[in-house]
Amino acid sequence: MQAIRSILVVIEPEHSESLALKRAKLIAGVTDAHLHLLVCDKKHEHSALLSLLKSGLQEDGYSVTTEQAWNESLHETIINVQQAEGCGLVIKQHFSDSPLKKALLTPADWKLLRYCPAPVLLVKHNRPWTGGVILAAIDVGNIDGEHKTLHAAIIDHGFDIASLAKAQLHVISAHPSPMLSAADPVFQLKETIEARYREQCKAFQAEFDIDNHRLHIEEGPADVLIPHMAHKLLAAVTIIGTVARTGISGALIGNTAEVVLDALESDVLVLKPVDIMDHLEEVICQH
User: Fold this and answer.
1) CA 89 to CA 87: how far, in whole Å?
2) Contacts of 240 (CB under 8 A, 6+ apart)
3) What is the pTM of this model?
4) Domains with residue ranges and CATH for the chain
5) Cβ-based neighbours of 85, under 8 Å, separated by 6 or more
6) Dihedral Cα 65, 2, 270, 261, nearest 10 deg
7) Within 10 Å of residue 203's Cβ, how many Cβ atoms?
8) What is the pLDDT of residues 133-161, one digit of tens each?
9) Which of 29, 83, 168, 251 has the smallest number of Cβ neighbours within 10 A?
């Protein structure tokens, strides 16, 4: 988070209070990142609004540029501007279609999460981050290189956000149910599975000063446990990583992430492994 030099903030003119901008100001206030405000609209002119926002932010000491653009679709416009401006983070507010679809992400949000080479923060509520709980969700059962690097990035971002918001960092990892038929006796008992998972967390616990009561190793499916724990802790932000399993042309985020993202009431920061972000940048450059 500290390394992010520029943040792309998607401004929705029809909504008077921009929660995306509120979150961006909090982050930039600590990291000194530059803010690039973007309105995606090809029909109406929004220069007056952008100029007003820019002057207000500059008075408060922020570095700001603004832009109005449109390119084929909402997510493509955002990604093109993110690439052109070299922004290390995209912040967009999630607007629900109706009370019934309150949590459900829109197709544009999904496409942005799938194809954007930079981390994306989706703002889903207006509660302040300050003094709250930041929940980092990792998959300790996967200890291959790609997952390990992603886990480190998730906890690192969580630590940074907790520091800048003076919040508490919690970490959750779901573990499978015990199976008597498991070849490894560790996976035959709940206690031994949990002990193995906790053992694998010791290094980052020491590095980021996460005590045992803020490390939640729970039995069950991640897509149920993560939203449940976020709700229980009243998490302000949940950080999750996505590892695409099928060549990026399909760029599937994966079922767990999709269910989790729709079920979460907190803001959500979505991270991808570096090689996937590099691949997405290559794909964009080829178009």
Assistant:
1) 6
2) 137, 154, 226, 257, 260, 261, 268, 269, 270, 271
3) 0.88
4) 6-123 (3.40.50.12370), 133-286 (3.40.50.12370)
5) 6, 8, 36, 65
6) -90
7) 10
8) 999 998 887 767 777 788 888 999 999 99
9) 29
